């Protein structure tokens, strides 16, 4: 392994060790929260007509909940890690190290993907007693997972770079990530919405992430899978490009 | 430690080459065209009052801050164009007491080594450093649980973990007890003897005077002086006479302009070696019939020279420094 590769692997390992050392907060807590949503909503909506043919509400809800949790955790992982390092001052160890922007980007994003993979697998596992989920298109599941978690991890890095205090991250989460993820069709099909909200949902990138992920399980979705893949890829490309520009120029990282 | 700084035929003479560095923060110019070289194998001190630009310069060398103009290279590697090679040859102990609260001491050092492309081959060196810096008992303790002095020592170990041939220590002994300062300097002196170039900023001028062969003093963003320590001390044409008079008698009028202060009831006189011989002071006292209770002389030290050059005592804030 070359020194540059070893530097990258070390940063990746360190990022994984960071969330692993607080697994209760980073993996177990989001799984429990999602399980509570499932229990409450599945009970409240019991007896409603299937959203898709042959797909009960509980089955419909789980992929959306998994993707919503993935989105929130991908953002939280990178944004909190970088902000904590900035606030504690220990980011200087990374800044003074011979690591390039691509290594920073890759290590932070892959560590977030790993955390999200753990969260998603744990969620799917704990819902086994409650719902039966078919897997219609595994490749679509994988692509949507990587693009969605990658996009939000990149967005989290951007937020972490821009943030000057934890309040900024909280504001970004409360006013952007949470509302958009709740209004993205996790709990309903967008076809059930009034025309204005139906149209508005199509401008929400999280809608495509959740819809495409749901397609992977059922083979049914509110929009064609290609739309979801293209939207999610576009969002990932945009967030990555902005993030890389910040890392290359040292925006808000170097005075 | 086997230092990687052994000179070779093609090796550059300078460990650090600073050329025309300017740094502006809006209207404020923190560095005003700083240029100098730090030679390979030197123990070099960078001094200056607070706000003189020392930390900004160190931040530029270590890649934390963009220079507005100019360039820096470490062992011939430009810190911007060839930053990976430059950083692999440089270790920096930051001034602030920063640490990663998620990790234990040994894990943190191994992670730091990994950033620099060093694997298991440096693990014995990490254990040796822990031993030398009296941290072995804390190797498996969380960074959060360490005292300030221990965290400072971990910072030193982190800077040295990849065996850099050039090391910068930005006030490494600030807030550290005397014993620990001694341990730190013994360790750094050993590294220096093995060929490592050491650059030091400190508020303890006796440390710089004792350890460093050459000193640069920065003042208001410019290099006020850069000279071998002994030349710097020798060029100060004064000596100090501390004198306690019998029964608190008054000093003759003619000697009053020489008084610089009072210490424990004794007056301190600053005497220009060529114009004010000590014998002349004694003659004046004898003529005035004033008896001497106690007398003491001292040669100028770095602190005196520092005040002479900058107009500030060490630790004072330079005029025009960012607040």
From TrEMBL, chain A:
A GO term from the CC aspect: ATP-binding cassette (ABC) transporter complex
UniProt main location, coarse: membrane
UniProtKB keywords: Cell membrane, Membrane, Transmembrane, Transmembrane helix, Transport
Entry GO MF terms: ABC-type transporter activity
Pfam families noted in UniProt: ABC2_membrane
Transmembrane segments: 20-42, 54-75, 87-105, 112-133, 139-162, 169-190, 225-248
Stretches assigned to the ABC transmembrane type-2 domain: 21-254
Keyword Cytoplasm among UniProt keywords: no
Subcellular location: Cell inner membrane; Membrane
Lipid bilayer topology: Multi-pass membrane protein
Protein family membership: Belongs to the ABC-2 integral membrane protein family.
PANTHER family: INNER MEMBRANE TRANSPORT PERMEASE YADH-RELATED, TRANSPORT PERMEASE PROTEIN
Protein name as catalogued: Transport permease protein
From TrEMBL, chain B:
SMART domains: AAA
Record domain ABC transporter: where: 16-245
Molecular function terms from GO: ATP binding; ATP hydrolysis activity
PROSITE patterns, sorted: ABC_TRANSPORTER_1, ABC_TRANSPORTER_2
InterPro entries tied to this protein: AAA+_ATPase (IPR003593), ABC_transporter-like_ATP-bd (IPR003439), ABC_transporter-like_CS (IPR017871), ABC_transporter_ATP-binding (IPR050763), P-loop_NTPase (IPR027417)
KW Ribonucleoprotein (keyword) present: no
Domain of life: Bacteria
Keywords assigned by UniProt, alphabetized: ATP-binding, Nodulation, Nucleotide-binding, Transport
Range of residues in the leader sequence: none
Family to which this protein belongs: Belongs to the ABC transporter superfamily.
PANTHER family: ABC TRANSPORTER ATP-BINDING PROTEIN, ABC TRANSPORTER ATP-BINDING PROTEIN NATA
Name the record gives this protein: ABC transporter ATP-binding protein
Source organism (scientific name): Solimonas terrae
